UniProtKB/TrEMBL annotation:
CDD domains: AdoMet_MTases
Keywords: Membrane, Methyltransferase, Transferase, Transmembrane, Transmembrane helix
Lineage, highest ranks first: Bacteria, Pseudomonadati, Pseudomonadota, Gammaproteobacteria, Methylococcales
Assigned EC number: 2.1.1.-
TM ranges: 197-217
Claim: Secreted is one of the keywords in the record: no
Protein's UniProt name: Class I SAM-dependent methyltransferase
Length: 276
C-alpha cells in the first residue's frame, strides 16, 4: 500500500498510483471512449444515472457532504450530481485515460488517479460510491476494507455490481469482469469488512427475461478479431429500442425509489453503513 497523501501530477491529474495508471489490466482502454461517445443515448446509462442520483441525494447528509466516487470512469455520473452545491465531490479512477475525458468536461471537479486496492488517501468521506467497480477487482475484499477506511464514523457506501453468475457471457469477458455476484456473497463480504446493510435491491428487474435470453445467446456468439467492435455490438442499440427499454427501466426506478427491494435482476444495489 502506498504512503498516504503522496502523489505525482501527470497530465494535470494527481496520480497516487501511477505504476498502474496505463495498464488497463481490469478494464479495456476502448471502453472509456465508447462510454464517452454513447452514454447519453444508452437507455441503461440514462436509467442507472437517474436511479443512482436519487439514491445519492437520499443518502447525503443534511448540509455539506464529502463524496468520493471510486471508478468514476469518464465522469458521466458526476455530471449528473455536480449541480448539487451541498456535495463536495472527488472522482477517482485507476486508469488515467478515463480521467482525461472527465477533466475535459468537468474542469472544476477534483479528479484523482487512485487504486482502491493498493492506494490510500489521507482523508475521509461521508459517502463513498462505487458503481460497477468491484467486479473488475481481483482482491475485492481488500477493496471493501479500504472503502470502509475511507469513510468517517457513520459514513455510508453505495455499491453496485453485476448479479448472478448464470448470466456470465462474452460481454463479461470483454469488459474484464472477475465475477458476477449473488446477493448473499456481497452482503457477507461487506458485513465481514465493517459494514451494516441499510438497503439492498436488484435492478434491471422488469427487463430481466430479455436480459437472460440475450446472455444465453451471447455465450455462443462468434468472437471477432476486435474486442472494441464486439463491445460496440453489445452495448449500442437502435433508437426505438432505447426508447422502449428506457420506458420499462423507469418501472424499476419507481419501485426502488419507493423502497421496494426487487428480488432479482441484472444488477445488485446495496447501501451500507460503516459499523463503528
Amino acid at each position: 500500500m502506498t504512503n498516504a497523501g503522496k502523489y505525482t501530477v501527470i497530465e494535470g491529474v494527481k496520480c497516487f498510483n501511477p505504476e498502474v495508471m496505463s495498464s488497463y489490466a481490469d478494464y479495456p482502454d476502448s471502453g472509456f471512449q465508447l462510454t464517452d461517445e454513447n452514454e447519453e443515448n444508452s437507455f441503461w446509462v440514462r436509467s442507472r444515472n437517474r436511479l443512482f442520483k436519487a439514491i445519492v441525494y437520499n443518502q447525503a447528509k443534511v448540509g455539506r457532504t464529502k463524496l468520493l466516487e471510486i471508478g468514476c470512469g469518464t465522469g458521466g455520473f458526476i455530471r449528473h450530481i455536480v449541480e448539487n452545491e451541498n456535495l463536495e465531490i472527488t472522482g477517482s479512477e485507476v486508469y488515467i485515460s478515463g480521467l482525461l475525458y472527465a477533466k475535459n468536461k468537468l474542469p472544476d471537479v477534483d479528479f484523482i488517479q487512485f487504486d482502491i486496492v493498493n492506494g490510500y488517501l489521507d482523508q475521509q468521506f461521508d459517502l463513498v460510491i462505487a458503481f460497477d467497480v468491484l467486479e473488475h477487482i481481483g482482491d475485492d475484499v481488500t477493496a471493501m476494507a479500504n472503502i470502509n477506511r475511507l469513510l468517517r464514523p457513520g459514513g455510508r457506501a453505495i455499491i453496485t455490481v453485476p448479479q448472478h453468475m448464470f448470466l456470465w457471457s462474452r460481454l463479461d469477458e470483454i469488459v474484464k469482469h472477475k465475477r458476477r455476484y449473488s446477493r448473499k456473497e456481497l452482503v457477507t463480504k461487506l458485513k465481514n469488512n465493517g459494514f451494516d446493510i441499510i438497503f439492498a435491491t436488484s435492478f434491471v428487474f422488469i427487463l430481466f427475461p430479455l436480459m437472460l435470453v440475450s446472455r444465453i445467446f451471447d455465450k455462443g456468439f462468434k468472437q471477432l478479431k476486435s474486442e472494441k467492435v464486439e463491445l460496440e455490438k453489445r452495448v449500442k442499440f437502435p433508437l426505438l429500442l432505447n426508447i422502449i427499454f428506457d420506458f420499462f427501466m423507469r418501472i424499476d426506478e419507481t419501485l426502488i425509489k419507493a423502497g421496494v427491494s426487487l428480488p432479482f435482476g441484472g444488477t445488485l444495489v446495496i447501501v451500507a453503513q460503516k459499523n463503528d
